[in-house]
Design goal:
By secondary structure, the protein is α+β, with helices and mostly antiparallel strands. It folds into two domains: 1-68, no CATH class; 70-172, 2-Layer Sandwich (Arylsulfatase, C-terminal domain). Helix content is 32%, strand content 13%. The protein is built from six helices and four strands; from the N terminus they run αααββββααα. The chain has a four-stranded antiparallel sheet with strand order 1-2-3-4, covered by helices on one side. Helix 4 (126-142) runs antiparallel to helix 5. The chain starts with a helix and ends with a helix.
């Protein structure tokens, strides 16, 4: 889930004569392409599910300053009968990778764009890591991610935070 495999440029060429493109640094995902096509085709969601996990990109054609989230999630559920669950969550300049079967990773992408220095155990980043993990848990809840409960339990977040508060305090 390194940027070499997840940071892939997306080009949108609207059918507008004389349109001059521009570079947009927002995070987008493949689900956003689906939502964009549906919006362009005139589909208007009639239920809470809307465009699913996608967000239509159509507004960027006419509004370069369109408000957009600084978060994105990439999911991996393993292969065949081997379950190796991963989630990569970007929030602003931080990248957090949850590895269900290995050590998690946390990077400051501005200071370390090549992801060479895992900050997961660095106490100077503990508050930032906590914030990003909680935002990740919120994203999981909003999108119905099936591993959210296990993620929160393993990381002592949200509804599990109070339960583990005394235990974590004794470990410190």
């Amino acid at each position: 889930m390194y940027d070499d495999t997840t940071k892939i440029p997306l080009f949108i060429k609207p059918a507008i004569k004389g349109y001059e493109g521009y570079h947009q640094k927002s995070f987008v995902g493949t689900c956003d392409i689906y939502a964009t096509i549906l919006r362009e085709a005139g589909y208007i969601p009639s239920d809470a599910y809307g465009y699913g996990d996608g967000r239509p990109l159509n507004g960027f054609v006419t509004d370069k300053e369109q408000p957009w989230s600084d978060e994105i999630m990439t999911e991996g559920m393993g292969a065949f009968s081997v379950i190796v669950t991963q989630r990569m969550f970007r929030k602003g300049k931080y990248k957090y990778i949850f590895n269900g079967a290995d050590k998690d990773q946390f990077f400051d992408m501005e200071a370390d764009p090549y992801e060479q220095n895992n900050l997961i155990d660095n106490p100077d980043y503990a508050d930032d890591l906590y914030t990003v993990k909680n935002c990740c848990a919120d994203w999981m809840k909003e999108h119905g991610d099936i591993i959210r409960d296990a993620f929160c339990k393993l990381n002592h977040l949200k509804e599990w935070e109070v339960l583990y508060k005394d235990i974590d305090a004794k470990r410190k």
